[in-house]
């Protein structure tokens, strides 16, 4: 009897211990889940603090030097947000198509973004963000410094908010809105170059529309010439080398205009000629490669995706390089302007970018991408519409062609708007093609509304969120920048 009581008590003790251990394990898991975002935030704050410390050592601890330190910290914050938001447009399609894993995409993008920023990031930037505000309107040194500081901080805060809600926005438009708002607060509405702002506003429509049209066009070629042919493999052997050649030629032209032009002058005609040569050579080189790669393939659509994986990976890397070369100026351009104003006094149309400022931008892009990039990469790659290698190829090619086309027309366009517009173009074209050309009845009128939404090829919720974020980017950044400018002036007084 005594043994039974002892055994029963021991069993109860073990049950109690197991329950306690389960509670502790659950608590540890909850703490780990909760602390994970804080780790990324902590690393980002540490990078910003290190940036400030290094800047203070280089510039000094006098009052003017502390202004530069503050600008460098805000510039690092902006670079982190650009990496977290903008880079998703380049890597999202490749990840969504499963040509790259999220980890590999982060590494490739980090290397290419940093290389683009440091190698072809440009020796000169306009301190008033491409002529948005007349330099003479903010000629007083203190006014100019606070205007640039407010614009940079407002742009960074807006991009941070957009990343948090999962909306890919244009960092260029964010900083442009910031400069406009600070300029209006400093010198009134007359200081703004309204014709330039009008062209930027027009690009809200032009950029995604062109991207969507080009992406849909190439997807139509792939569907009509390859996928819906009796012998898909034979059709692919003929068309895939041509498509790869077109992509190679377009990216050569794209990089010549948006990357090499920062190292040495390249005219539009020469850039196109370079693209034609590379495209033709690549087409002939890839014919035997595609023939060997397609040997033994089954005559089905899934087999074709393999042929597009390598071109898609290269396109993502090249887009990241070009993005690093161009959009790094959104983070470090105002910082360079403030450094120039502190050291030489007043505003200037063009200023040189010191190497240490360029390093802040290049490294900041990679830090933001590695810490916070996966969220937007998933949104762009899989949550707007489903992408495979062929659809993602169309998105990447459309992005390059649209930038070239816009450069030829002299239109200011956003790489973010182009890429997202191309993804929407692919999705909406698929909806139209399956319903109108293939006569597939994909419109569900019997299921509940929530079920019908999930069956659509393009998720309308993301569509409306992103469009709304695009529309309010410039005015929101401008209003925030104006408020920050007034606040900084009050503190300075």
Give structural notes:
With 493 residues, this protein is mostly helical. It has one domain (42-492). Helices cover 80% and strands 1% of the residues. The protein has 15 helices and 2 strands. The protein has helices at 2-59, 63-85, 88-96, 102-120, 141-165, 171-187, 194-227, 232-258, 268-294, 301-344, 355-383, 389-409, 415-437, 449-455, 460-492; strands spanning 124-126, 350-352. The protein has a two-stranded antiparallel sheet with strand order 1-2. Helix 3 runs antiparallel to helix 12, helix 5 packs antiparallel against helix 10 and helix 7 runs parallel beside helix 13 (415-437). Mean pLDDT is 80; it is low at 31-35.
Poorly predicted runs of 5 or more residues: 31-35
Helix content, binned percent? over 70%
Rg calc? 26 Å
Oligomer: single chain
Tell me the strand order in the biggest sheet. Answer: 1-2
The count of domains is 1
Strand content: under 5%
Count of individual helical segments: 15
Q: Element order, helices and strands? A: HHHHEHHHHHHEHHHHH
Number of strands: 2
Class of secondary structure makeup: mainly alpha
Q: Mind describing the biggest β-sheet?
A: 2 strands, antiparallel
Tell me the distance between the termini.
87 Å
Approximate shape? globular
């Amino acid at each position: 009897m005594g043994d039974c009581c002892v055994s029963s008590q021991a069993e109860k003790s073990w049950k109690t211990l197991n329950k306690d251990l389960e509670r502790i394990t659950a608590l540890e898991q909850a703490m780990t889940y909760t602390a994970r975002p804080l780790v990324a935030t902590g690393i980002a704050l540490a990078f910003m603090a290190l940036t400030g410390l290094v800047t203070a050592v280089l510039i000094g601890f006098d009052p003017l030097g502390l202004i530069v330190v503050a600008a460098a910290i805000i510039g690092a914050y902006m670079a982190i947000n650009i990496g977290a938001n903008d880079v998703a447009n380049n890597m999202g399609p490749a990840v969504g198509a499963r040509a790259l894993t999220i980890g590999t995409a982060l590494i490739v993008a980090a290397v290419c973004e940093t290389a683009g920023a440091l190698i072809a990031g440009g020796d000169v930037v306009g301190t008033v963000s491409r002529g948005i505000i007349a330099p003479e309107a903010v000629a007083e040194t203190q006014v100019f410094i606070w205007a640039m500081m407010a614009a940079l901080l407002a742009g960074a805060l807006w991009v941070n908010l957009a990343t948090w809600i999962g909306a890919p926005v244009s960092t260029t438009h964010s900083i442009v809105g910031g400069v406009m708002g600070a300029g209006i607060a400093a010198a009134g509405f007359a200081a703004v170059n309204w014709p330039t702002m009008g062209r930027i506003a027009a690009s809200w429509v032009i950029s995604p529309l062109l991207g969507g049209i080009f992406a849909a066009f190439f997807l139509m070629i792939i569907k009509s010439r390859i996928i819906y042919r009796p012998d898909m493999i034979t059709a692919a052997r003929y068309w895939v080398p041509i498509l790869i050649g077109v992509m190679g030629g377009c990216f050569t032209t794209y990089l010549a205009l948006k990357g090499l032009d920062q190292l040495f002058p390249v005219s539009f005609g020469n850039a196109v000629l370079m693209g034609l040569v590379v495209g033709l050579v690549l087409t002939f080189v890839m014919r035997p490669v595609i023939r060997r790669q397609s040997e033994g393939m089954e005559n089905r659509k899934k087999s074709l995706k393999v042929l597009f994986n390598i071109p898609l990976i290269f396109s993502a890397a090249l887009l990241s390089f070009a993005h690093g070369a161009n959009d790094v100026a959104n983070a470090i351009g105002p910082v360079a302007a403030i450094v120039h104003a502190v050291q030489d006094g007043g505003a200037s149309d063009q200023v040189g970018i010191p190497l240490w400022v360029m390093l802040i931008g290049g490294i900041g892009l990679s830090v933001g991408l590695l810490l916070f990039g996966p969220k937007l990469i998933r949104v762009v790659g899989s949550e707007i519409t489903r992408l495979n290698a062929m659809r993602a190829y169309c998105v990447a090619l459309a992005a390059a062609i649209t930038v070239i086309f816009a450069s030829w027309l002299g239109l200011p366009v956003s790489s973010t708007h182009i890429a997202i517009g191309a993804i929407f173009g692919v999705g909406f074209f698929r909806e139209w093609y399956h319903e109108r050309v293939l006569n597939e009845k994909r419109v569900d009128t019997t299921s509940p509304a929530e079920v019908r939404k999930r069956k659509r090829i393009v998720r309308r919720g993301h569509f409306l969120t992103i469009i709304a974020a695009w529309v309010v980017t410039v005015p929101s950044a401008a209003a925030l920048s104006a408020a920050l400018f007034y606040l900084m002036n009050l503190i300075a007084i």
